[in-house]
Amino acid sequence: MKRKTSKKIIDTIKDKHIVPDPRWKINLRDYLYWGILACVVILSAAFFSLALLNIVDFDLELFCQLKVGKYLRLLIFSAPYLWTGLFIFCFVLGYLIFRKTKKGYRYNVLFVAGIILIIVSILGVGTHIARMNEKIEDQFSQRAPQFRKIILPRAERLLASGEGMIAGTVAQKEQEKFILETRNGKKWTILFDTNTKMGKERVLKNGEKVIVVGKKIDKNTFKAIGIKPLKRRGKNLLNKRFHPNKHLLLNRI
Amino acid sequence: MNEQLSKMSDSKIVELSKTELDIFEELVLRYQERLFRYIKRISYFNNEDAEDIIQEVFIKAYRNLNDYDDSFKFSTWIYRITRNCTIDEIRKKHTHPQSMPLEDEELLKIFKSNINVENEIEIKDHLEKVKKIINDMPFRYKEVLILRFLEEKSYEEMMDILRKPKGTVAALVNRGKKMIAKEAKKQGLYLNQ
Fold first, then answer.
1. Least CB-packed of A94, A97, A163, B66 within 10 Å?
2. A205-233 burial by CB neighbour count: b if 16+ within 10 A, else e?
3. Contact flag B166-A106 (C-beta cutoff 8 Å)
4. Chain B interface, mutation test: which of A5, A100, A108, A110, most B Cβ atoms within 10 Å?
5. Distance of alpha carbon A2 from its chain centroid, rounded?
6. Dihedral pair phi/psi, residue B73, rounded to 5°
7. B113 burial class (0-12, 13-18, 19+ CB within 10 angstroms)?
8. CB contact under 8 A, A8 and B29
9. Taking the model in full, what pTM does it have?
10. What ipTM does this complex have?
11. Is-contact A253 A184, C-beta < 8 A?
């Protein structure tokens, strides 16, 4: 009986002219998984660097001058939800694809997640250092202006007067106040005094790009608690090219 | 020639089978009975269906001979194919193996592997209860217990057959064991552990 079954199997293979598939054909699916995994990791790193860009843009020194409640509100208001969400999605997808590779099942969750996270972090930080994330952000912002609020939360943060933060160019400086022009063209009167934290022997200059934290007093007046020059990365956000959908921004003020 | 073949390792036969189909019969002869039993253990299929699955398994194995990696045992590789074919067949028939037709001896073997039995006669008297405890277990636990205690596979082999991390396999075995112990206690069969 044993011999009969085995004979039947061999005869079927012969009758159907079945031959072993070539190695490349068998491995094709595995190569495909590795290819998709590489793409997903690159995407994940790009999203990671975009989230990172928005997070490091938080000026901690300046933010510390805000009350905890306001600080948290500003943090929640302008956190990079889209990029963080996409990063997590790609990260999980990467893990699932790795598990589908030939020997992927052999490794435990923590090991695989750890390796992917390390690769994504290295690539993401590299992208950030090379400032490629700013270019990507710029492209997204220009191509989808209607989604600017979620694409570019760090730019939104610079117009969050209600939350205690505003940024723009010093237009006209006087004794204890100056006019600040925001990127949407709105002019604010900023009041400051000797208690305002500006750094040692700091003198404001006309045309300087600054970020101000404090309290909105009325429609056009803002009382400053702290004033700092904008970081190099933040300066770009004040450029006109970053507000193609001006009415959207004006609605926020 | 046959005598020569019977002394050869599985991986050597795999290599030779790639160019000479008749040599592949040696592998079929070596594994068909074990795999037949395994199919019967993890499914409700009758002998005829199980034989069809065996045929499909070896055809698939022959077609994928180049996929065989000799860092694994051949038995692990062929068990994996068998498991996949059996599960595919179960899905095709749209039914789930709720009750696995395990022999009384097999049921007792699984049971005794998990419980420290002092009085074997008493356990044999309660065979129906033992059968119910094991048959009522979810498929994934029953499957690992069959591989571990009836097929006598190591965790490493089980990991490659089930395509699950070793930790997950060990956790499934442990949970399965605990499930049996808990149920045995409930049914008054928990003698000593």
1. B66
2. eeeebbbbbbbbeeeeebbbbbbbbbeee
3. yes
4. A5
5. 65
6. -75, 145
7. middle
8. no
9. 0.77
10. 0.78
11. yes
